[in-house]
Design brief:
Layout: E1 4-11, H1 15-27, E2 33-37, H2 45-48, H3 60-63, H4 79-93, E3 99-101, E4 103-111, E5 116-123, E6 130-139, E7 163-165, E8 180-184, H5 188-199, E9 203-208, E10 214-217, H6 222-227, H7 233-257, H8 259-274, E11 294-297, H9 300-306, E12 310-314, E13 317-321, E14 324-327, E15 332-334, E16 337-340, E17 353-356, E18 359-360, E19 368-369, E20 373-374, E21 380-382, H10 391-412, E22 416-419, E23 428-429, H11 437-441, E24 449-450, H12 461-470, E25 478-481
Parallel strand pairs: 1-2, 1-6, 2-3, 4-17, 6-21, 7-16, 8-9, 8-16, 9-12, 10-11
Antiparallel strand pairs: 4-5, 5-6, 13-14, 14-15, 17-18, 19-20, 22-25, 23-24
Helix pairs in contact: 1-4, 1-10, 5-9, 7-8, 10-12
Length: 494
Amino acid sequence: MSVEHLDVLIIGAGLSGIGAACHLKRLCADKRFAILEGRQTMGGTWDLFRYPGIRSDSDMYTLGYNFRPWSDPQAIADGPSIRRYIEDTAREQGVDRLIRYQHRVLEANWCSASATWQLRVQRGDEDEPLRMSCRFLMMCTGYYRYEAGYTPAFAGREAYRGTFIHPQSWPQGFDCSGKRVLVIGSGATAVTLVPALAEAGAQVTMLQRSPSYVINLPQRDALSNALRRVLPETWVYRLARGRNVTLQLIFYKLAKRFPGLVRRVLLGLVRRQLGTVDPQHFSPSYKPWDQRVCAVPDGDLFRVLRQGKAQVVTAEIERFTAHGVRLSNGEELEAEVVVSATGLQLQLFGGIAVSVDGVPFEAPKSMGYRGIMLRDLPNLAVVMGYTNASWTLKVDLSSEYFCRLIRHMDATGMRQVTPRDGDGQVRPQPFLDLQSGYIERAAHLLPAQGDRVPWKLHQNYLLDLLQLRYGRLEDDYLVFTAEPDEGQAELAQP
């Protein structure tokens, strides 16, 4: 079987993959590359998720790409608008023609003898997988499992006679109007669903085990919309992007340094929005930014609560019944529809079996290098975003950095680059500094971060900007090799 060889393969045609492709086309114009997408459409998260009200909880001035301004008046955009932005960007940059749909990567093995990645790719429903190879691999697969979201093992669920839905698999055209809907959860998905379902005519109850921090943000950026009348779009975008990045970083740093003060401010802002609703439903037990802070545009969640179109209940579920759920306090909540907004299942590499010279790569035993590469894994970037700011901020920087690395290797005649911790002195720490349930459930699957640069994750855009865009590429931990590793030839896969 013939093997198609390319310089770079990008896995995933979502927000990250399209961004990486655009940077690669601009910065490494001589490289032959393709985007492999397992699904039939581009967009990733913003195509997969179709539940009512789907939107970003980050403003589009920072969630948008650094090379293509967001010009819509709405700063906090809905899912279809973000999907169109991704599609328009791909078309304008000419990378849409490089996407190969229904190409699901099964295995990726690094071959030291040839200094290439060898891939087995399932194309559609064909019986025999394709074989492809590349010098560099960019994993833009996100961090969660697309096949299914996370649903706890609810006692008695099999007895429930109503409709049970996870938002990740929302039935197309499903109508909730006039129905009693119970939304289980208190995170970003739940606070999005509740107002959308309530405005669509459902009788909504949000059942949460514990509260989250929720902040009201304006859906439109009045200052930016005003500046559009006198300034070019690119200027408006850069000004808004710089301002919002700075404000996000200040808020995060304040929350970490003065959690008590920030907690009082957040709870005070919430009380002003609630009217007669009990503020204890929005008073978390944890510190701000121990988990992500949920944003609601123009206070839509608070509005439907004040109007009585929705209610919040804070309690533990004892078990499901035929007509709803029974709580630990003995109360029963009846519902014709239960929506389990209970989170995601984390998954690294999009489920691809990654190996080095035929030996399976164990990510939990590895360590992140600059939040982009992994220790002992050659010529591979894992393109992921921030947890405390807009996802795309880090995607842009990571893609630019990896392009710089490719160009540097071309200039110096190097074929392989591998992060190594030669002296073993870097001490591992948890990869992500968040206590969210979906992260804690998957902690055993994630690599570590280190206790020092360049192994430490800053979660700081301004610091990363300086180091990734302008910092030195060569250091004591990045090992460059000019020739294939002949010592590994006998282990390499053909």
